[in-house]
Design goal:
- The two termini are about 30 Å apart.
- The protein is α+β, with helices and mostly antiparallel strands.
- Helix content is about 15%, strand content about 35%.
- Keywords: Aspartyl protease, Glycoprotein, Hydrolase, Protease, Secreted.
Length: about 450
């Protein structure tokens, strides 16, 4: 109950603050806080949960996340000018790892929504509900109470564009409809509309950024594994109706994040819309091409190999694939997955080299979710240097990028998969990761995200 009250207080304070502001042009973009669900700073943190339970739940979410990437997606562009840089607050939860605080409508209704680099549409639950999941942190958005809500008509370019990426729904002659389904069986169906969205910025002088005419899904039928703590989803992939694409040139078509390690007790992660002034050019920054694939708006990268010490393990590892050219765009980078998922043969070769290099005897994971674990108090000096080799970018991973700590055990934060390979968020901790959609690059700079 304490966590629930904390969330309501946060939302009410934000609501009172937002009502007093008009749309504000912020010259350098904006940034929002991201708070990990398992952090003591999270309103959803419970001291009654064991560290091992939190670790296991995160692993299960990552496994479910693989199904999430089997979804059909959705996307558009906006002329709103915000300058070149914006930041916002995000919490770990549900089908993605983070929730984002924003407000919708006029007057502004504050909501918590999943922030998802693997989704390409913005949607919130709306009344009247045909079917809605429980929503405990805020009222369900009522479009009839907002003076800035507008249904997008059927006979428009926006509705036509939506129909090419959303499951088809016959138009009823007036309002455009959307139907988003995910690989895990979750769905959201409702009216496709435009509305004012407001973000609480933590960059520069703390203020709120209001953006009008944003296309979003007003969901009247929403079912699946969505969390009651959230109210919907904010897509951050490259689809035309994602938040990033709609902000477009107003944020230089860029966004970035800096994720603190889960063990941090005080610091928050940051999500920045616009050019990140802390991502400077030079020897500390490495960049790799984004590979966009047909009928997909995910951020695919090309992982060529992983090195354990001096041993380089190529992505094409098995004897049956060694002669096949390396697939371009063979792994999705995703902030919503805790664990990194690798093809089964590739993972097996990587794990074998780690076992060889670490002289400490491994111990079994009592939950059997991760296959290589060591006592949590093991000597970190025994861990070899591990480098992820992307096209044009070698990323040296630290101990905290490699292992998921849960107090008693330190388990390799990688798992085998027969499905899509995913570069998860543990390996991205303490890097500024910037997405440049114009130049089609993802850049990494090692940093202390607690100080960023």
């Amino acid at each position: 109950m304490a966590a629930y009250n904390f969330s309501i207080v946060h939302l009410c304070v934000f609501l009172c603050y937002t009502i007093s502001l008009v749309s504000y042009v912020y010259g350098s973009g904006f940034t929002v806080d991201l708070i990990h669900r398992d952090s003591p700073r999270s309103p959803f943190f419970s001291s009654a949960d064991k560290a091992s339970d939190r670790a296991e739940n995160a692993i299960r979410r990552s496994i479910s996340r693989c199904n999430h990437f089997g979804k059909k997606s959705s996307s558009a562009k906006s002329s709103n000018k915000l300058g070149s840089n914006i930041t916002s607050t995000v919490f770990l939860d549900g089908v993605g790892d983070y929730l984002m605080l924003l407000a919708v409508g006029t007057p502004a209704l504050p909501l918590l929504a999943i922030a998802d680099t693997g989704s390409d549409i913005i949607w919130f639950q709306c009344s009247p509900c045909d079917v809605c999941f429980p929503q405990i942190t805020s009222p369900i958005f009522a479009p009839q109470n907002s003076s800035t809500y507008i249904d997008i008509p059927c006979a428009t370019k926006a509705c036509d564009a939506l129909s090419s990426v959303s499951n088809a729904i016959p138009c009823d002659g007036a309002a455009c409809k959307y139907n988003i389904s995910y690989g895990d069986g979750s769905i959201s169906i409702g009216n496709f509309a435009r509305e004012t969205l407001t973000f609480q910025s933590t960059s520069g002088a703390e203020t709120n950024i209001s953006v009008s005419n944003m296309a979003f899904g007003c969901g009247h039928n929403n079912t699946g594994i969505f969390s009651a703590r959230g109210a919907g989803l904010v897509g951050l992939d490259a689809g035309p109706f994602s938040l990033v694409s709609q902000l477009g040139s107003s944020i230089d078509n860029k966004f970035s994040y800096c994720l603190v390690n889960i063990n941090s007790k005080t610091a928050t992660s940051k999500l920045t819309f616009g050019s990140n002034p802390k991502l400077v050019s030079g020897s500390g920054v490495v960049s790799t091409p984004i590979v966009f694939k047909a009928r997909s708006s995910f951020y695919f990268l090309t992982l060529e190999a992983i090195s354990v010490g001096e041993t380089r393990i190529p992505f094409n590892t098995s004897s049956t694939t060694s002669a096949v050219p390396l697939e371009q765009g063979n792994i999705v980078i995703d902030s919503g997955s805790t664990i990194t998922s690798l093809p089964t043969d590739f993972y097996a070769a990587f794990e074998a080299e780690m076992k060889k290099a670490i002289t400490i005897d491994p111990v079994p994971d009592p939950n059997t979710s991760l296959s290589l674990c060591y006592p949590g108090d093991s000597d970190p000096a025994s861990v070899p240097t591990v480098t992820a080799h992307f096209t044009g970018a070698d990323i040296v991973l630290s101990l905290l990028n490699l292992f998921r700590l849960n107090g008693e055990f330190a388990c390799l934060a990688f798992r085998p998969t027969d499905g899509l390979a995913i570069y998860g968020n543990v390996v991205q901790n303490n890097f500024i990761v910037e997405y440049d959609l114009v130049n089609k690059l993802v850049s990494f700079m090692s940093t202390d995200c607690e100080m960023a």
